[in-house]
């Protein structure tokens, strides 16, 4: 046996010796390779490096860098692995504690759910015919129904224990407390009776009646609460401020003697003398004549020609500053302009566009809303409802729905949640034609009056011109008077019909009813502002009829356009219809 222990000792000692020697040799080798060996490496490197040529020296340096980088990377990997292992172990310990806490919380949640189920079952038992407990508090006797105490009147006479009187009715106040803190609702329910020996019971019919009374009381309380909320709510704070602003508003003294020519020339001088903005008489008379023919005007042209400044300065001339609305590319529907009702806050998100429409209903003078860069988004999307409303023949039908019902606190001029678009307002849009914008469709062009501004007018000196205060009614009267004084002559109508027949035959284009109506409104006012009849017709034909060539593929009818130019010169004269001929020439050059 002793020989066996000696054998085991020698074997184990040899194994331990070998393992220890291996560890010591590994540590010595590591130190020699990565620490003490650098002296020998450096000696070898310097002994050869001095004899190398320049390219070989570069290669030797690269070799040295690689040999240095390999142990460095290995050391970094070992250190990072060690740190990551320590961190994972710490996170594992933390997760174990977290799992224990989550399990404890889950058990508590289950206990609370069990308690909630027990309470709900007790309430359901009480409502469905369970016993009604009677409690006394400070000498008062009460009956509990559905978890609430209802006072009992004349309890001394009602409860007579041991009297042996059966069937004595207990006159309950029938009161069901208002869940919103209001007064007790009288229900007048006779419930059960006091049986001999003081036992109380309740009949099924009485319980049904009491339940119905409670439901009715809760419904009435909710209705009263909603009515009180509506009475106190102000869904349109901006529009209400407009009401307050015009409660003591005194309109200015209006000039009802000015003529259209004086009106247009006065604006041109006002813009030059007070705002240093210069426009030709032709642009101004087109703008005023456009107001007579449409409620929507589109100012087109190259940047820097004063498209935005024109309606802005015109509104200043009328002493009623325009509302500027910068159209965003994200505009998709009517809510971008009119706003929307927030069901959570019970308020309407009002916009400046909506405020301007509402305020225009208070004023007698013309009002303007400028849609700057209106074709950054699709006009037929966000402006579709307004395009449709303004097409209705009666001004009384120009109504927009904002909210489904009226509340007592709504602004004065809202009728059943609807706002009326006043006839004293004009919508002026500016448009640039570049890669960042959308093409304006025929639907929009047909309803609007486009005005092109492609060049700046020369500056000129003039005396200071005052503002002009006119009512919209006087302006409409001037438009009507112009139609009487300057109707389109029969000769011009005949030429226009011949041009219409030519366009229908060769190009399938026609003067539509809308264009004809705008022509009858535009040309007389254009003449009254100082223009000529042929000049007004030329502008309408070029901007409203011939513009449809842009949406057509006319490359196959280039020769027909040449014939159209010749027809226009033959019908109207070579010195007339310059806008139309220049436009046709430009279209022909595109193909």
Descriptive overview:
By secondary structure, the protein is of the alpha/beta class. It folds into 4 domains: 2-76, no CATH class; 151-232, no CATH class; 260-452, 3-Layer(aba) Sandwich (Rossmann fold); 486-590. The chain is 54% helix and 11% strand. The chain has helices spanning 2-49, 54-127, 155-158, 204-232, 237-245, 260-274, 281-293, 309-317, 335-338, 352-360, 379-382, 384-390, 442-447, 472-485, 490-507, 513-528, 533-545, 558-572, 578-590, and strands at residues 134-137, 140-145, 148-151, 168-171, 190-194, 200-201, 296-300, 323-326, 340-342, 347-349, 367-372, 399-401, 418-420, 425-431, 449-452. The chain has a 5-stranded parallel β-sheet with strand order 8-11-14-7-15, with helices on both faces. A 3-stranded antiparallel β-sheet has the order 1-2-3, with no helix packed on it. Strands 4-5-6 form a 3-stranded antiparallel β-sheet, with no helix packed on it.
The CATH superfamily of the largest domain turns out to be P-loop containing nucleotide triphosphate hydrolases
Kindly state the number of beta strands: 15
Mean pLDDT: 80
For this structure, the CATH topology of the largest domain is Rossmann fold
What sort of overall outline do the alpha carbons produce when their principal axes are compared?
Answer: flat
Helix content: 40-55%
User: Any low-confidence stretches, pLDDT <50, length ≥5?
Assistant: 127-201
Please name the defining characteristics of this protein.
15 strands; flat; Rossmann fold; 591 residues; 4 domains; 11% strand; alpha/beta; 19 helices; three-stranded antiparallel sheet
